[in-house]
């Protein structure tokens, strides 16, 4: 570093301290702080809603201690510049620096607490995450304590107003964190296109509905704030996490504007009480909607897992087709529709020899190849399942015995001509025997399977690689003789 120009040396130091990507953050922090100053009460830099604190904690959660220098610079500038306009002095600059230090200390302590309690990777995945985040956010006390003390030292806060200013600062930072930190984390983990695609028109409708309802409540000045809480619940039920945060931000923006213009249901209260009610209202809405969203999201995840487990319970893990349970359930559904149905039961000939001679791995490959061949020959409306070791079943919907027999013969011929390579100079050829039956009313699934299985045994008794067909009649009628389909 000795041979580098002095400017490059300082640039290298700044980069190592975390300033490489700090300019966008500092500008965003200053913009949010400037916007929140529109709501400021005396003294001029104390605001009831400070989303810049949420931005600071969000980037600190994501990128750690590298962001602390940027947070210090941004917080110092955001607080020093307004103070200099009202009281330009060296003491004022020291007060601004102290506020920046307090912001960094608060961020550091909060990040440590959050990583210890829940970890940075799981924020807003479970209700416990939201509770931990909310509690830590509401205990954001270092920054207001140092900040208000610095203002008092600079003569900008009188002693009798200390507690009121401290309370306003504390709640303003906490609400800003509750509103903006989740947004920072969501935007970091989700591409903006996915944010729109996942919600689509629901997101637009939710934001417009929240804005319209908020304006109606504050313009009418009726005591209907609870309606806005209901909208937050609806957003948590219908929208993604981004949608929930967006709806809360819209409500918070309009609520803060109403406070600034002294309109709405709380306008008749004295200023400190009105301010406290608004802050508590915004904090309650955000926390309760996040908790409700996590609960709903957990329920949705459990529902998906349950549905997936139910589906897997009906599938054969080797061939990925129905197992016996899934087959019988689908068969009963089709039989209740009183449609013309035909059943094929297929058994791979001499499959035990394949397993014994070539090994179970090759036997599994035979089963998979066989399943793919059959699945490619039947329709989506048909039901295909593995109901035993090498035994399979197919229900052909809206197919009589004659058509089913033709399909069975086509399957038999296809399998007979199929080869499975087991090495560079060796292949396996195998055949299948098939029993075919059609069903009439009054026959249950188990009798249908049993009768068709007997037809399968007839096909094997006739020399294997055969098709045997017959009808399954009601219980009080004897079955017709089977016949061979050539």
Automatic annotation (TrEMBL):
Name of protein: diguanylate cyclase
UniProtKB keywords: Cell membrane, Membrane, Nucleotidyltransferase, Transferase, Transmembrane, Transmembrane helix
Statement: the UniProt record of this protein carries the keyword Glycoprotein: no
CDD domains the UniProt entry points to: GGDEF
Parts of the chain that traverse the membrane: 21-42, 48-64, 71-87, 93-118, 130-157, 169-188, 239-261, 273-293
Annotated compartments: Cell membrane
Signal peptide span: none
Catalysed reaction, written as an equation: 2 GTP = 3',3'-c-di-GMP + 2 diphosphate
NCBIfam families assigned: GGDEF
Cofactor: Mg(2+)
GO CC list: plasma membrane
MF term (GO), any: diguanylate cyclase activity
GO biological process, one term: negative regulation of bacterial-type flagellum-dependent cell motility
